[in-house]
Amino acid sequence: MMLQDGSTQLLCLTASSGVPLFTRGASKQLPFSVIGSLNGVHMFGGGQRVLLSSCETERGGKVVWRVFQDSVMLIAVNGGHQAGGGGGSSKEEELHLRRLLENVWNCMVLVLGQDELASARNVERLKRDLRSCFGLIDQLLEERQEGIMGNLTHCADCLLPPNPAALQEAVEGFTQAADSEFGCLMVHGRIAAATEKWWRLAPQEVVLLSALMRSLSASGSSSCDYPVFLPQGSPTVAHRLLRFQLLPGADVCVLCGPTPSLRRAESGLVGRFWSPMVETLRGCLAVGERCLPGSVSLRPDVLALLLINRETRRSVSCVRSSTHPQPSDPALPSKTRCWELLKLFYIFSTTRYFSQEETLCVSPEEKPQRGNTEDFALGFSHQPLQCYLVGEECKCFGLQTPQHQLFLLTPLSVPTFALRTVATQTLSAITGNTGF
C-alpha cells in the first residue's frame, strides 16, 4: 500500500457498509483490496470498542480515519515525507490530515447539506451528487496553493486594502440593497471587506465560502446563483450565494433568501454601487499578492510572513517577490518553497508551543484527542510566547501575543539573536498602519 512520497489520497466510504463513494488526490489510486482493508480494520476496532483514529506506515506515511454523523467515513492516506526535507514529523502530518478531513466534510455539507449526507439511503444517487463537491475538494488537496493558508489555520485569508473605509461602505450598501446582511468583497481570492454579519459566521464557514468563491471565479462566469448550506449555522436549510465579478480578480457576493433575483441584482445593483468604485478597486488589485497596503514598510530581511489575529480569526500572509540576498547567503528558497516552509513552520509551532483556537463543532465521539503539544511542554504551567527554528534554507521565528500570532521566515544571514527584533518590528509595522 504505497503512494508516491508526499502525495495524499482521500477516500470516502459509507460508514455502515464501507461502500466507496469517491477517491480524490494521488494520480495512482489505491487498489480496492487496500481500501477494503482500511475500512475493515476500522470496523474491527469499533467492534472491540476501540476507536482507530490514525496509524503510521513502515515508510513514514500516515493514515487518518474519521466518521461523520455515523454515515460517512473519510480516510486520508499520505505516502510519506518528500525527498529534500519537505515533510514534517508524524505529529505535524497528523494535524494536517485531520484538518483536511474536517474541511472535506464541511465542504460536502456546504454543497449538499447535512440531511442528504446523514441519510445516504440511495448510495448511487449520493455518488452522483458528490461530484459537485470535487472542485472544492481538489482545491483543499492542492498542497501548493500559494497564498492561501485558511485551509490549514481555519482563519480567513485577508487582503488589507489601501482605502478600506470606501470599500466597506460600498459592501454594506450593496448587501443591504440585496435584502441581506451577509456580504463580502474578495480580491485575488482573499477577503478585502465584509459586513459585520459575515464576520460573525463560524471561522471555518468563512474559509469554505472563500474557497467556493475562488472556485466559482475560476470557472470564468461573470455571475452565478449558487445554493449553499452553512455547516454550523444552517446545515439543513440552503441559502443563496449570489456572486458577481466586478473586475478580473475582484468579486462581490451576498448570502440571501429568495430575493432578489440574480438578474435584478446584476442589472440594478452592481452598477449602482460598484461603478463609482472602479478606481478604488483597481488600487486594491494593485496591492497584489503582497496583501498589505503601501503604507506598511517591511524590513528587507523578511522573506515571508503569516500574521493571525486571534480575536477575529483573520489572517494576512505574503512572500516577498523581490529580495536582495547578502553575499553570505546561499541561494534563497523560491517563492513556492517559501509558502511550503511557512506552512510547515506554522504546523511546527502550533503542534509544539503555541495554542490553537479550535472552532469546530463536532460530537463527543468524533472530537479528536488533544495530543498535539510537545511532551516536555506539558510539564510547564506557562504558555510559550516565542519560538525559533534554524533550518538549512532559512531561519524561522514565531511570536505569540494575546491578540496575534506572527510567523516569519528570514534569510540565514540574519543573526539568530536579531530574530525577535525583526518579528516585533514587523508586527508593529502592520498593526500600527492598518489596525489589523
State the shape: globular
Mind telling me the C-alpha Rg? 22 Å
Tally of DSSP β-strands: 16
Averaged pLDDT: 87
Spatially, the strands of the biggest sheet line up as: 6-13-12-16-15-14
Proportion in helices: 25-40%
Tally of DSSP helical segments? 13
How much β-strand is present in the residues?
15-25%
The first-to-last residue Cα distance is 46 Å
What profile does the largest beta sheet have?
6 strands, mixed
H/E series: EEHEEEHHHHHEHEEHHEEEHHEEHEEEH
Report the uncertain regions.
82-87, 359-372
Layout of strands and helices, then pairs:
Layout: E1 8-14, E2 20-25, H1 32-47, E3 54-56, E4 62-68, E5 72-78, H2 90-112, H3 114-119, H4 123-130, H5 134-141, H6 150-153, E6 156-157, H7 164-177, E7 182-187, E8 190-194, H8 196-200, H9 203-218, E9 223-230, E10 234-247, E11 250-256, H10 262-274, H11 278-287, E12 304-309, E13 314-319, H12 335-352, E14 386-390, E15 395-400, E16 404-410, H13 419-434
Features:
436 residues; alpha+beta; 6-stranded mixed β-sheet; 5-stranded antiparallel β-sheet; 16 strands
Give structural notes:
It is built from 13 helices and 16 strands. It is of the alpha+beta class and 436 residues long. It has a six-stranded mixed sheet with strand order 6-13-12-16-15-14, with helices on both faces. β15 and β16 form a beta hairpin. The chain is globular, with a radius of gyration of 22 Å. The relative contact order is 0.10.
